[in-house]
Structure formats: C-alpha cells, structure tokens
Amino acid sequence: MSEPLLRVLTRMRAHVLDPDTFVRAVASGRQKGHDVPGWRRVELRYVDLKGGPHLQLVAYDDTQAHTSNHAAGDEARGALDALLDEPFGNWLFETRTETHQVRVTKKLEALVHTTARVEAVEVDRGHDRDKARLLREDDPVFRALGLADEQGRLKPTRQAKYRQVEEFLRQLDDTLTEARAKGRLRRPTAEDPLRIADLGCGNAYLTFAAQRFLTEVRQLPVRVVGVDVKEQSREHNSAVARELGMDAEFVVGSIAGVELDPAPEVVLALHACDTATDEALARAVAWEAPVVLAAPCCHHDIAAQLRKAPTPAPYAMLTRHGILRERFADTLTDALRASLLRLQGYRVDVVEFVESEHTPRNTLLRAVRSGGPVKGGGVRDEYDALVSTWGITPRLAELLGPLAR
User: Please, what is the angle between helix 276-287 and helix 322-343, to 10°?
Assistant: First the structure.
C-alpha cells in the first residue's frame, strides 16, 4: 500500500541521522515526469574522521565519483535534506536490523518494502576507501580468476580490471534495485533462486564477481547459466565454479540456439562480439527478461553498411575519415539498440562503466522492463527517421522481426 512520499522520507531520514544504527543508503533512478537528477546514483554512509563521525555522500555521474563529508549534526542534516529533495525514483535504506526499499510512484507516493535481517550487522565507519568496495580485493573470486595472488593480494597489472568489476557491480546493484522497486523482480528463494544467463560468456569474470557479490554481500540465492560456443570456456568456467562452490552451469552452444526453461530473469551480454550482442538482446526480449545488461564489443555490422551507403547531407564529414566513421558507427549502433529496446517496453540507460583509458569497451546498456511494446509515438518516429536517413538495417531489428515493427 502506498504512503505519502514526504511521510516515508521523513521516517527514513530519522534512520539516516542515527550513526549508531544506520548502515548505508542508496538513491538512484528518477521520478516520473522529472528531469534526471544531477547524479545517477548517490551512496550515503558514516565515516569516522578526525573531527568525529561524518555523513559521507558519494555521488556518481556518468564518468566518475564525487565524495563529500558532512559533520554529524546540522551539517549532515542539511546535506541529507538537500538530497531528499532531489527527484530520485528509488531509495534503499539499510540499518543494522532492517532493509527498506522505497519506490516513488507516478502519483508521487511511496511504496515501501521492509525486510528484517536474519542477524544484525555491525556498522562500519572506517574511512579507508578499500572498505567501501563492493567486493574486497582479497575475496576468493579474484584469486580464482587470476586477478589476485595466492595470498589474496591484487596483482598490480590487474588493478584496472578490478575497477571494471567494481563499477559493473554498482551498475548491476542499481539495476536490480530499480527492477525490484518497480515490481519487476520477485524476491528469490533457495528453492527458486534468481536466474541469470550470461550469453557469450567467455571466461565470465564479471559474472563470477556478480554471483559472488549477490550471494555473499546481498545474500540472494542465485543460479547462473553461461553460454559460449567454445568448449574451452565451458571447461574453464566449470572448474572456477566448482572451486568457489557456486550454483552455476556452463554449456556449449550458440546464443540463438540455447534453450533455457524457465527463462532467465537477468540477461547479461558482456563484450559479446559484433552482432552477438544483438542476438543476446533479441533473446532477452523474447524471454521478456526483466533486467538486461549489455556491454557491446566491436561494431562491424553498421560500420559495413555505412561504407556501402551514400552519406546523407549534411553529414559527409562524419564518414569521410575512416576513424570518424568507425566511431560514429559505434555510437549509431548502440543508439539504435537502445531505441529498439525502448520500443519493446524497456527503460534504457547507456552509461560508461569503466574509464576509456583502461579499455575502449566501456559502454553499458542497462535495461529494465517497464511495460509492453510501444506501438507508436516519439520513440518510434525517431527510430524510423534515423534508419531511413542513413539507409541502414540494424541486425537487432532483423532478429526481432515483427516485434520491431
């Protein structure tokens, strides 16, 4: 049952202002009809500094994190009140004994789901940034994946990969929180765990980290199925899963041909090459998966079409030089993928999930199913105009077939 939003936020505010019982809070998403807030996500927790306890806000934009500390008392209350005034659509509040998920409805009321913890947790107010990691560097998963040595110390050459894992986990955590708040994801049980499919999984290092985070940190039962065409990937990943004691199965097969029953609730396609990403997105749509996260790799299909088709006026400069044409093809490909997902009833964000200095494969499509397919309107008109202007046919549209029209 919904409650007045102000009443709920006032109640949650009291939790946040109690440093002895408050663990953390996360704000994300946006309210219906409001512009996106200045930050896509804000995390709150207390840290002990020289001047005493401070409320720490870590605000994330599309490229980096911004940290500010506010002394407990009037300063913390002011910072918190300013944040509560922002039009975030989803909130997560955690105390030592309870977890409160708050979703803001279209009528600007609040739906609250409160869960009691099985055991009370300790409040960690250490200001060491390592303690804020979603998965500690010495977690066994990093040793099993070769990112850490036998003593659990992260290898210097794998620091960038570790940062990529951390940011992916934050994006995943945000997306699952949003999907649960919107009623798109059920609460998994030991008998019926959260079903995750990794299509084109390769060595699945992000997926192993995700399962470890969800099971060990979020305490959610999870079952993973990984699909890849290489037998080597199946053997390697199965051995890692056994070492870590994970509920995971890896199979050899194509993305288009794999049959999963029951259908997955979360579909991952992480660095699947070229149109393999389109195949994964098409399967996710066919399964009506509530959550989809795709990190595309190379983008050859649209690039090849741009080389063959005449460039419409006045855009000749975008395709005259090869490097600019390739970069434009990357952007156009992912823009069309996002548009097609929106037409299938998904709310889509396209974000950077690791700095481009570490890898050029740093774009992430985050999609949460919010309703049925869109038959017309602005999204359809924009998509039709774009493909018509450039004379291209996205592979995802071909795979969706009648669903894309």
Answer: 10
